[in-house]
Design a protein that fits this description.
Layout lengths: L1 E4 L3 H11 L4 E7 L2 E7 L5 E8 L5 E3 L3 E6 H8 L7 E7 L2 E7 L3 E7 L17 E6 H14 L2 E7 L2 E7 L3 E6 L4 E5 L2 E6 H11 L4 E6 L5 E7 L2 E7 L8
Antiparallel strand pairs: 1-5, 1-7, 2-3, 2-6, 3-4, 4-18, 7-8, 8-9, 10-14, 10-16, 11-12, 11-15, 12-13, 16-17, 17-18
Helix pairs in contact: 1-2, 3-4
Amino acid sequence: MLVKIDNPQTLTKVIEIISELVTEVRIKVNEYGLSINAIDPANVSMVALRIPKSAFSQFEAGSETIGINLDSLKQILKRCSSASTLILERKDNLLEIQIQDRIKRNFTLSLIEIESEEKEFPNLEYSSKVELTSLDLIASIEDCAVVADACSFQIQEGNFIIEAKGLNSAKSKFSGDEAKIDGENCKSKYSVEYLQKFMKGAKLCEKTILQFADDHPMKIDFKAENFSLDFLLAPRVETED
């Protein structure tokens, strides 16, 4: 396996986001590109990264899977600048990482065995779908974080509402003018802590797609020209005040 990417800044940011959920992952490389599927230790969320073959300036790979410590990989990738070129090459039980800019720098990362069972990202059915500007979603989640540790997502009479209630409350309401709203009335509640981690992915793309249903896991899609990053978040099922 040998892959080369000319602008590794996006990869660096995506790996940093995933590393907040899991510390070890399997990286799959095949004829279609590079992918990661992982579940966080608490079994609350799942993440799927897809980077197509076309995003790489050089791509020499069959079909293989390597185990990586994400914290170690993240620290190395942080050494890249916007002008760097990144080369990843597997040699036996090592991943050789070369960063090329004004000078060439080389790192080696030991590959690891991951014992946990690998699971594919599930294909669930949803009753509602919302597409909105990422900046608006980020602001709404941050509003909720001020007042509570969970917030509800709901479709109500054609409007999309994000709301948090504790001793205090916060609420954002989107009509069809501010978001693309498709679906029936529904409501589900989710952890603000996890959502805040996911919002770092929202900063990498202009639009975010949300799919959810009553007391159902929510799927969050961040898609750009050179990658897709999807999250699945389990609902908080509890009695409303």
